[in-house]
Amino acid sequence: MIPEEVGTLTTSDGVALEARLTVPPSAQGGIVVCHPHPLYGGDMENPVVVRIAEVCDDLGLATLRFNFRGVGRSAGAHDGGAGEQRDVEAALAHLAGLVGAGHPLALAGYSFGATVAAGLAPRYAGLTGLALVAPPLARVDNGPFAALAAFGERLLLVAGTHDEICPVDALTRLGEALPGATLAVIDGANHFFFGKLFPLGEAVAVWARRTLSPV
Description:
The protein is of the alpha/beta class. It has five helices and eight strands; from the N terminus they run E-E-E-H-E-H-E-H-E-E-H-E-H.
């Protein structure tokens, strides 16, 4: 992974967010990665978030991970997902400006981050792909996810066989309701992907190559 740069994002409501980004000189696309629930210790240093960024960086993509409002050195306070969508908008706009017009731009979210990403994705123009890692389907209804059908195979759904927060049967039902979505089940993985970061990264890499890599 090339060295990350320290950055600051400013949201539409004036909140300053700390971020880490990589932008290879020849980057042909980019991805923003959203972290899990801050009230349960989630931040941009989460191993799943870092793994997603590393895999995409290895593919030559620009990557941006950041702390939601109220987390780490980011200003503001936790907003239950509403304000956090503004945070994601700021991250996508920033990265889009760095990779340039016409290059693919994707969004990935893990757990709470997947819920936030799913809520924003259908109304963010120009988003090429969406990866939802262990969306907390046992704790939230399918409302935020129902509007994602337009992504088709550009939507990746990932969870482990031992995930109680994102049960495989719930993930499978969601995949069936979103025709064309790519479903990846990591054998033996729990919600935190302990010992399973490598196969998780492989699943993300396959999706990213198809969705974001230049033809």
